[in-house]
From TrEMBL:
<dbReference type="InterPro" id="IPR050287">
    <property type="entry name" value="MTA/SAH_deaminase"/>
</dbReference>
<keyword id="KW-0862">Zinc</keyword>
<dbReference type="InterPro" id="IPR032466">
    <property type="entry name" value="Metal_Hydrolase"/>
</dbReference>
<dbReference type="GO" id="GO:0019239">
    <property type="term" value="F:deaminase activity"/>
</dbReference>
<keyword id="KW-0479">Metal-binding</keyword>
<dbReference type="GO" id="GO:0016814">
    <property type="term" value="F:hydrolase activity, acting on carbon-nitrogen (but not peptide) bonds, in cyclic amidines"/>
</dbReference>
<feature type="domain" description="Amidohydrolase-related">
    <location>
        <begin position="55"/>
        <end position="418"/>
    </location>
</feature>
<dbReference type="InterPro" id="IPR011059">
    <property type="entry name" value="Metal-dep_hydrolase_composite"/>
</dbReference>
<keyword id="KW-0378">Hydrolase</keyword>
<dbReference type="InterPro" id="IPR006680">
    <property type="entry name" value="Amidohydro-rel"/>
</dbReference>
<dbReference type="GO" id="GO:0046872">
    <property type="term" value="F:metal ion binding"/>
</dbReference>
<protein>
    <submittedName>
        <fullName>Cytosine/adenosine deaminase-related metal-dependent hydrolase</fullName>
    </submittedName>
</protein>
<dbReference type="Pfam" id="PF01979">
    <property type="entry name" value="Amidohydro_1"/>
</dbReference>
Length: 453
C-alpha cells in the first residue's frame, strides 16, 4: 500500500541532511517512508492526502510513564513524592487486569491525541502476584496501535523491609527475575521497525534489593534489552541512599553496574557536577519529566546543563503526578521550566522538539528507525493545521507555535504507516465505552481503599 501525503505546507524532518521543506511531500510504502521531497506530480499511490495548510513533524516519543495511574488523577494534590506514593499504594493494591487494560487505553488515547507515536511504560506493581498485568497493557497497546516499548518493572522491598509499599504489591527477587525472562522471551522483538520491545525496570533504589539490581543487569546483557529506573528524583531519595548505602544515588548506581549505555533514568533532578560527568562518560540516557517534578515539588532537572552531554528524551510520567498524558504540554513545560531557572536562551523550541522526537528515540535505542522523517525510517509522523485559532498571528515561524502557542492536539497522526488521526478525529478507535468503564473502575478502587463511601 502506497500513501502519498502531498502539498504539505511545512515539513520539519529533523534530519540533518534533508532539513526543512516547504510545499513538500512524504511517500509511504506500507509502514516505511520511501521518499521525502518537493516534486510529487509524477508519483503514483494507492491513497493520496492533500495536506495544504499543515505542518508535519516526526511523532513524539514518550520515554517514561505509569499508565495505570490514569485511574487516580487529582489525588494527594499537596503531597511530596514519598508521602504521595504511600497514599496511592493503598489504592493501587486493588488494581487488576481489567484496570490495567482500560487505564492503558485511556492513557494511550490521550498520548496519541497529543502527538505520541511511540511510548514506553513502567509498570512496577503486581498486586498479589498478578503477573498478567504486564500482558494486559501490551494487549491495550496492540489494540490502539501505538509503537510500544514497555518495561517490566518491579518492587521487592515492602514496609517491613524498609520500603514504602505494602506487602501485597511487592514480589520476591526470584519471581521478578523469572517474570523478566518470561516477558522478554514472549514479547521482545528486536528487529528494525518493531512495534514491541521490552526493557527491564526495577522501580527505584529504595524499592528493590541490590541483588535484584545486579541480577537484572545480567539478564539485560544476556538478552540485549535496555534497563530503566527512577533516579535522583528528590532530596529525600538522596538522603535515603546516603543513610542506607553510604552513597549518593548516581554513585550507588555505579556500584551496582547500572552506569552503561543500556540504561536510561527517569528524572535526575538532584545531580552534582561529578554525577553529570559520570552519566556522560557512561552514555546514560535521561527521561525528563518536568510536569511531575513541578507537581510534586521535586525540583528542576539540569537539562540545559546536560543537553550536550547525554541522550535526553521528554516524558509525561505517571498520570497521577502530572496529571495528564499530554505530550504537547510536557514539551512546552520542559521549555519553560528550564528558562525559569537558566534564562531565556536555556533551551530553544527546536531543541525541545528534538528531545521529544529523535532524542527520545535515541534514549530508547530506536533512532535507527524512528524520530525523524527520512527515507527508510518508520512512517511515524504527526501534523498540525495552520488555521487553528491558537496559531493565529504565529505563522511567520510555524514550528515555534507548537510549543509557544497552544495547539491542544494533533490534527494528523500516522503510526507505522497507519492513519490514526485525520482532520483532528481518530479514524478507527472509539474511546467512549472505555471512558465510562475507566471512571467506574476508578470509583471502585477508591471505595475499596476507603476514600469514597
Amino acid at each position: 500500500m502506497r500513501k502519498l501525503f502531498k502539498n504539505i505546507s511545512y515539513v520539519y524532518t529533523f534530519d540533518e541532511k534533508i532539513g526543512d521543506i516547504e510545499n513538500g511531500y512524504i511517500l509511504v510504502e506500507d509502514n516505511v517512508i520511501k521518499e521525502v521531497g518537493r516534486n510529487w506530480e509524477n508519483i503514483e499511490a494507492d491513497e493520496i492526502y492533500d495536506l495544504d495548510g499543515y505542518m508535519i513533524i516526526p511523532g513524539f516519543v514518550n520515554t517514561h510513564h505509569h499508565m495505570f495511574q490514569s485511574l487516580t488523577r487529582g489525588l494527594a494534590a499537596d503531597k511530596k513524592l514519598f508521602d504521595w506514593l504511600v497514599f496511592h499504594y493503598e489504592i493501587w493494591k486493588f488494581i487488576d487486569e481489567e484496570a490495567i487494560y482500560v487505564s492503558s487505553l485511556i492513557a494511550l488515547y490521550e498520548m496519541i491525541k497529543t502527538g505520541v507515536t511511540t511510548t514506553t511504560d513502567h509498570l512496577y506493581l503486581y498486586p498479589y502476584g498478578n503477573n498478567k498485568l504486564f500482558d494486559a497493557e501490551i494487549e491495550a497497546a496492540k489494540l490502539i496501535g501505538v509503537r510500544f516499548h514497555p518495561t517490566r518493572g518491579s518492587m521487592s522491598l515492602s514496609k517491613k523491609n524498609g520500603g514504602l509499599p505494602p506487602d501485597s504489591v511487592v514480589q520476591t527477587d526470584d519471581e521478578i527475575l523469572q517474570e523478566s525472562v518470561r516477558v522478554i522471551e514472549k514479547y521482545h522483538d528486536p528487529s528494525k521497525y518493531s512495534m514491541l520491545r521490552v526493557a527491564l525496570a526495577p522501580c527505584s533504589p529504595f524499592s528493590v534489593t541490590p541483588y535484584l539490581m545486579k541480577e537484572t543487569v545480567k539478564i539485560a546483557n544476556k538478552y540485549d534489552v535496555l534497563l530503566h529506573t527512577h533516579l535522583a528524583e528528590t532530596r529525600d531519595e538522596e538522603e535515603y541512599c546516603l543513610e542506607k548505602f553510604g552513597k549518593r544515588p548516581v554513585d550507588y548506581m555505579e556500584e551496582l553496574g547500572w552506569l552503561n549505555n543500556k540504561v536510561w533514568f527517569a528524572h535526575m533532578v538532584w545531580l552534582s557536577k561529578e554525577d553529570m560527568e559520570k552519566l556522560s562518560k557512561n552514555n546514560v540516557g535521561m527521561a525528563h519529566c518536568p510536569s511531575s517534578n513541578m507537581r510534586l515539588g521535586s525540583g528542576i532537572a539540569p537539562v540545559s546543563e546536560l543537553k550536550n552531554k547525554i541522550r535526553i528524551g521528554i516524558a509525561v510520567d505517571g498520570s497521577a503526578s502530572n496529571d495528564t498524558n499530554n505530550m504537547i504540554m510536557e514539551a512546552r513545560n520542559a521549555l519553560l521550566l528550564q528558562r525559569a531557572k537558566y534564562g531565556a536562551n536555556a533551551l530553544t523550541v527546536r531543541e525541545v522538539l528534538k528531545m521529544a522526537t529523535i532524542g527520545g528515540a535515541g534514549v530508547l535505542k530506536m533512532d535507527d528507525y524512528i524520530g525523524k522523517i527520512a527515507p527508510e525510517m518508520a512512517a511515524d509522523f504527526i501534523g498540525f493545521k495552520l488555521d487553528k485559532v491558537e496559531f493565529a498571528g504565529g505563522l511567520h515561524n510555524p514550528i515555534n507555535s507548537i510549543l509557544l502557542c497552544d495547539p491542544k492536539q494533533v490534527d494528523l497522526s500516522v503510526i507505522n504507516g497507519e492513519i490514526k488521526i485525520l482532520n483532528s478525529e481518530f479514524t478507527n478507535f472509539e474511546i467512549s465505552d472505555f471512558l465510562e468503564k475507566h471512571n467506574m473502575i476508578s470509583k471502585k478502587l477508591l471505595k475499596k481503599a476507603g476514600i469514597l463511601l
